[in-house]
Amino acid sequence: MADTAVKQRTADKRGQILAAAVDVFASRGFHRSRVADVARAADVADGTIYLYFKSKDDILISIFEEKMASMIEGAEQVLSGVADPLEKLRQFALFHMRNVEDHRNEAKVLQVELRLSNTFMKEYNPVRLRQYMDIIGQLIEEGREAGIIRSDVNPVIVRRAFFGALDEIAMQWILTPKARYGLKESAEQVADVFVRGLRAPATD
Known about the structure:
This protein is mainly α.
């Protein structure tokens, strides 16, 4: 029981620090933020941060890891009740954009600030991101096998193109306070373009 309580307190404190870091990085920018700023926002001593994280970059990567794990789980739950692979593609787009809209600070950190980290861009192996994108590739493979999606499309290319379209639209929405489009509308339009292009031609 004691070990369980200690682990829970550790998880709570770590989560408290990560939540504070999201707000600090989103408002001040990653490079302008200091570990001391995160500690102040989390209401902990500066030294406490280093009990859980090696560096500011480690905090940033931990935010990414936890968010992507949550996104993978959430996407799988949303898609589990959908049979049609093309409808799954649409639901994936809606799920992705809904998360961006509902968690703007997290989205800003992951879409903008993360790319400013040399450690992330040059040294980190983003396994979680590939796992998330693999969900798209699996939908394409599923559709090809069922004869619903064209057999001549390359799932690797499609998953990158589909995710890239969502990523670019989300990025511009985050960077533009008065964006001229909504994310739900964007998700619907991106999905519609891809669904029309991927659908296998009807056979007589």
